[in-house]
Amino acid sequence: MNQTKIRSRSQFIGAIFLLLFFAVVYRFYTLQVVEASWYQERAQQMYERERVLKAERGSIYDRNKNVLAKEVKAYTVVAILDKEAPNHVKDPESTAEQLAPLLDMPQEQLFQLLNQPDRRQVELRPGGWKVDQDVAEAIRDLELEGITFVEETKRYYPNHTFASHVLGYVDLDGEARMGLELELDEHLRGEEGLVRFQQDRKGNRLIASAETVEHPQDGYDVYLTIDERIQLYVEQALDEVYREYRPEKMMVIVSDPHTGQILAMSNRPSFDPNHYSSITNYWNDTIANAFEPGSTFKVVTFAAAIEEGLYNSNETFQSGSYRVPGQTIRDHNRTGWGNITFLEGMQKSSNVASVILGYERMKKEVFYHYIDRFGFGKLTGIDLPGETPGYIRPLEAARPAEIATMTFGQGLTVTPIQQIQAINVIANGGKLMKPYVIDSIYDPNTDKVAVQNKPEVVDPEVISPQTAQQMRDILETVVTRGTGTNFYIDGYQVAGKTGTAQKPKQDGTGYVDGKYIHSFVGFAPKDDPKLSVFVAIDSPQVEQYYQGGAAVAKVFKAVMQNSLQYLNVTREAEEVTIEEAEADWATVKDYRGFPVNEGREQGKRDGFDVHILGEGGEITEQKPAPGTSVLKGTRLYLLAGELRHFATPDMTGWSLKEVQDWAHVTGVQLHVLGHGYVTAQSVSPGERLRPGSELSVTLEPN
Predict the structure, then answer these.
(1) What letters, b where the CB count within 10 A reaches 16 and e where it falls short, cover 206-217?
(2) Which end of the chain is more exposed for a tag (fewer CB within 10 A), N or C?
(3) Can you name the residues that pair with 459 across neighbouring β-strands?
(4) Is 177 exposed, middle or buried (0-12, 13-18, 19+ CB in 10 A)?
(5) Measured in Å, how far apart are the chain's first and last C-alpha atoms?
(6) Which residue from 607, 635, 610, 637 is spatially nearest to 622, judged by alpha carbons?
(7) pLDDT tens, 499-551?
(8) How far apart are CA 407 and CA 426, in angstroms?
(9) Cα separations (Å) of 687 from 142, 640, 647, 672, 696?
(10) CA-to-CA dists, residue 209 to 46, 204, 280, 573, 649, angstroms
């Protein structure tokens, strides 16, 4: 081998070693510099571990700190299927058979879950997902091989269907879905924490390693204005009436008229948020369901007329019908009651009275001004999700007939929350208050109140205090001698207004035959209102439409009476009689002992419509009783001695109270169907009756 070849090979080998050297240097450089952070991160991931620290979702309470929603322990049932595991399911068929009734799942479905050879373990969903402790204990008692539990938490609503559309619900995945749970989710859910630590390759935690902890921030607690007791009265009344009448929907709101606080709110159909899969109606109808109010809207028309100086309680008008361009407006009894006062017009819920006051005498701009001031056609701003504003036809687009019908609650839509807000204007002396259900929000992490709501005045004087007082007096007479007699509560001065509205077709082509929404909005006690209540029942199953008002009365009276007693509002039985708020009222004298002719003449001079019953020569009994305040022109029954026979009067147009007075004096056994005014009677006028005879009357509402 010559020297040249030797030198060439040496240079070649040297070059190879030089390349290898530079390759090693380059690799060392990339490991130490270029990829160092990546390898450090991988190593950290291999040896470091994190564990999430769950935040506890905040609870929801009523105004008296009673729990309405809270977190509780729950247990998910897990089956170990890995045959290498010492404790695994060895008999899937027997295990499925024993678990099926406890998890409310078909045995076949459980058997399929337990027979999955490619799975090491499986959660027995849906029945075994977050079961209650009692179910978990029952399963433990079975001592089934391969069955274990994962402890978790879930949302629990101890009162079940109680105010469910207000509260909403959180599903088993922990996601808020509706109601306040969704609206306040950001406050309620809190923030998760984190703990970091190191472990060896076998997964054992290193004792000497550093640990970093980010503590969770628990969710805020929410306190509502809802009163659990009053809400309970509402739920009980709704359940009872719902079972009896099977309506399509029911809505109730109870509020404090002075503050706008909502004390109770509920709907039917309802649902149990613990079993939310049963929900059929996701809308809170008390704030989202807008419908034609019917005669309850006359409160706005009359209040506006009084405020504008257009109303005189003693002034008379011809009831029955009223012609406006394009339409004839009629009273609900079609023929009216003859020439009556405007006060009687409100008591009898005359459409004609409302049209004269709100359409004939009032400029349409002024009428619309009061609709707006009472809060209709816009959101109330209540702190609940899903509120709708209803619909008021634009002023420039409203035809005369449409404005005329709006005066008695047709051709516009309003929500229950708007109606309770409007009646509160009458009850509290003229102020429009913003309704609200959230009293405060408390941060348990800082022990501080994060949000504290206060009553908010939207409009300080929609109407004057004097107008509000006059309206309260008028609305009380609706209950004591008008269409609202079914809503009279012994011992309490109740004021309010009835409403019956036909349900419009969804295509807007008219109204649905036989479908009505019956409602009542009122407050008590009349002179110092503590509560206002709105009740609406959509399409109750009754033989005659007017019988739906009785269902509304059952709910209203149960809720109002129980709630007033719970609030220790003293009965004022001696003050329930009508005060002399109007100039044509009179106190009934004692006519007993008067000769018949003298009693008749004295009664007439006192301004009453006198009816003598009996064949004696001296007045022995009378109705109304002495000392009662009544309107002049009221029927006064004077009984003279024994009553053997008497002629049946024509009772068409009589109120329930007038019929009851007559039945009391004559001793007739009275049977009443419906409410409002008499439209039919079982015994023809003029036919002779005896005390103890039976008489049925049918009344129709406004």
Answers:
(1) eeeeeeeeeebb
(2) N
(3) 432
(4) middle
(5) 130
(6) 637
(7) 998 888 777 777 787 789 999 999 999 999 999 999 999 999 887 766 788 89
(8) 17
(9) 78, 20, 5, 19, 14
(10) 14, 11, 55, 79, 100
For position 227, what pLDDT does the model report? 96
Helix/strand/coil (H/E/C) assignment for every residue in 24-39: HHHHHHHHHHHCHHHH
- Per-residue pLDDT, 577: 45
Q: Report H helices in 189-309.
A: 228-245, 285-288, 298-307
Tell me the three state secondary structure of residue 352: helix
Q: By C-alpha distance, which of 542, 536, 463, 545 is closest to 496?
A: 536
Two tokens, residue 324: 């406006």
Helix (H) or strand (E) holding 68: strand 67-80
Within 8 A by CB and 6+ apart from 8, the residues are none
Which neighbouring-strand residues pair with 534? 253, 521
Q: 582 φ, ψ to 5°?
A: -115, 155
Q: How far apart are CA 360 and CA 651, in angstroms?
A: 31
β pairing state of 635-640 and 609-613: parallel
Percent of the chain at pLDDT exceeding 90? 54
671: number of Cβ within 10 Å: 12
Beta bridge partners of 52: 194
Considering only the C-alpha atoms of the chain, give the largest distance between any 2 of them, rounded to a whole number of Å: 169
Q: How far apart (Å, rounded) are the C-alpha atoms in residues 269 and 251?
A: 9
pLDDT per position as a tens digit, 193-216: 888 777 666 666 666 666 788 888
Distances (CA, A) of 371 to 367, 397, 463, 501: 6, 16, 12, 19
Contacts of 28 (CB under 8 A, 6+ apart): none
Which tokens hold the place of 583? 């100039």
**Identity at 136, one-letter amino acid code:** A
- Quote the CA–CA distance of 342 and 348 in Å, as a whole number: 10
Catalytic positions: 295
With beta carbons less than 8 A apart as the criterion, state whether 402 and 367 touch: no
Closest CA to 658 of 636, 673, 686, 642: 636
Per DSSP, 553 falls in state: H
Beta bridge partners of 499: 519
Contact, 280 vs 408, CB < 8 A?
Answer: no
Are 559 and 533 contacting, i.e. CB atoms less than 8 angstroms apart?
yes
What mean pLDDT do residues 165-173 have?
94
Torsions phi, psi of 126, nearest 5? -90, -20
**What type of residue sits at position 700?**
E
